[in-house]
Write a structure and sequence with these properties.
The chain has 162 residues and is mainly α. Helix content is 56%, strand content 5%.
Length: 162
Amino acid sequence: MQIELSKEEYRNLIDMIQIADWVMNAHKTEKDPSTEKYSKLEQKIYSFADKMGCENLIEYDKEMNEYFPTKEFDEGQGMQYIDEYDNDSFWDELIDRLVVRDVIKEIGEKKAHKITFEERLEAEEPLIEKYSTEFEQNGLDNIEIKAYPDASSDCTGLLPIN
C-alpha cells in the first residue's frame, strides 16, 4: 500500500503525531515498551521530512540515530492544541477531584460508593457550579494548602466515586 500526502497533509500528520506522543509519553521519565510501536511509526513518518519539504521541522541526530522535532516545530500548531488541552484538563480535573472530596466529606466514603447515579449528580451539581464559578472568576488566587493537624497522616484515602 502506498499513501500520497501533500506537504500540508504531511504537516498535519506530524502535528497529530506530536499530540499523540505527548499524551502517551510527556509524563514519563523513561522509554515505555508499551508505546515503542508508536515511536517506531513516528520515526518512520519523521524520516520523510526532507522529501516533504519539512526539513525545518524535523531533524536527524546521527549520534542518537533518531529524528527529532526542531524548536520551530515545537512552537507550532500541535503544541498550541496540547497547551489548550492541558489547560482545560487541569481545570476539569481539579474541579472533579474537589467535588469528589467534598461529596465524600459530606456523606461519607461508604455511602458515596453506594449512591445511585442520579443521587451522585444531585450531590455533585451544586459543587461543580460553585467551583466552576470560583475558578472562572479567580483562577487559583483563592487556593490555599492547609496542613493537616497530623502532618504524617496519609491523605490518599479519597477515592473517586464509582
